[in-house]
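Case study 2.
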Amino acid sequence: MWRWLWTRVVRAAAGPRSACSRRGCSNSSSTSSSAPAAGATIFALSSGQGRCGVAVIRASGPASGHALRSLTAARDLPPARRASLRLLSDPSSGEPLDRALVLWFPGPHSFTGEDCVEFHVHGGPAVVSGVLQALGSVPGLRPAEAGEFTRRAFAHGKLDLTEVEGLADLIHAETEAQRRQALRQLDGELGQLCHGWAETLTKALAHVEAYIDFGEDDNLEEDVLSEAHKDVRALEAALDAHLRDARRGQRLRSGAHVVVAGPPNAGKSSLVNLLSQKPVSIVSPEPGTTRDVLETPVDLAGFPALLSDTAGLRDGVGPVEQEGVRRAQESRHFLASVVGPRCSLSPGERQQRLLLVLNKADLLPGAGQDPEPRLPPHLLLSCLTGAGLDDLLEALRTELAALCGDPAAGPPLLTRARHLHHLRACRDALAHFRPARDLALAAEALRVARGHLTRLTGGGGTDELLELIFRDFCVGK
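Prediction:
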């Protein structure tokens, strides 16, 4: 019995049985364009443009070894995965191009899964241009398109789609928190989690189909169906926990909105300039200098944020300032409020997450003296001297970690709308499993749910989706 059930599990893991396949009809499918073109070898500069100490030029494909021999005039390839010093020459004219380190990565033990070679040359524009032209003259080689190296790694199973997205996020990471989150996703944590969930559904589907085919067989254990229900309930709870993260992963990837608001001349523009470490806003003793919402991306205590300077909250003296105050009130999503030493804040003004900051602490008569003990919890700050800035940054870090999640702890975060879509669709499909009186419908609900988990990691993805993901990569990656 268990040998038969294991066969059922393997068959279910291979893909859902459509109604067409059960009837024995044919249903051919075309090959995905995500696979690399047969025989094509690509090359590109993989490091940054401009003058640099070392530039990395990469080639991938079946003619990579031939390209390496052509530029080094060597019969034998260097030892695999070892840096070797070689003189590079133009294969057509024999003119020396550079003395460089070369690395040979025979497939499938390479980034793309194909034969690969890297040329670590001096980073002058003339050297890079000469080596690229020399590679272009080798038969069978062509310049790579944007993201083509990573796309080949995906096509050869070296990366799943969540790891590809993690690699893209790592390349674009600008803060410590973004780097940590992207590295966890590139390491496969989200993909492994989804693969584990898919295996749970595969096992449950095998049990349900076993009950459909052999429900009256004495050799079938009575608790086969109850085990499937138990596994599905546990998976539903796990999905609910991840869907309740309030889009924290997407905020971590794109940045939280931090709005600085308060009365005129409280030091809002000074605080924005202090946090962004550049003169974003005009600072003037004249009230009402800021009449619009000025926004700048910043790194706040390791988290990405869009920092907004707003008009002073008061009854504007003119229509322009009144419009600025209206925009400031509409912008208060995650609010860092700057209040002067003699101003107060009523509890009704709290909107979402609030940090109450009392600026101009340098004007207080005594060090550490609290000007308004009746106020809600607050921070003292002097934008003039910088006193209290470390406490403010730590408070911002705590608030932003609550909004964006801690990338160093807990389960992997969902960083894209695509992740949320497939997990919600999986959860919705499982909602039809338990109420289904017909076991065939229950099995179909499991197949649909598992299909969404498979598509999340890249199985069965459409060409349009892959183009959308890979277009964010630069040439050479």
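The two ends are 49 Å apart (CA to CA).
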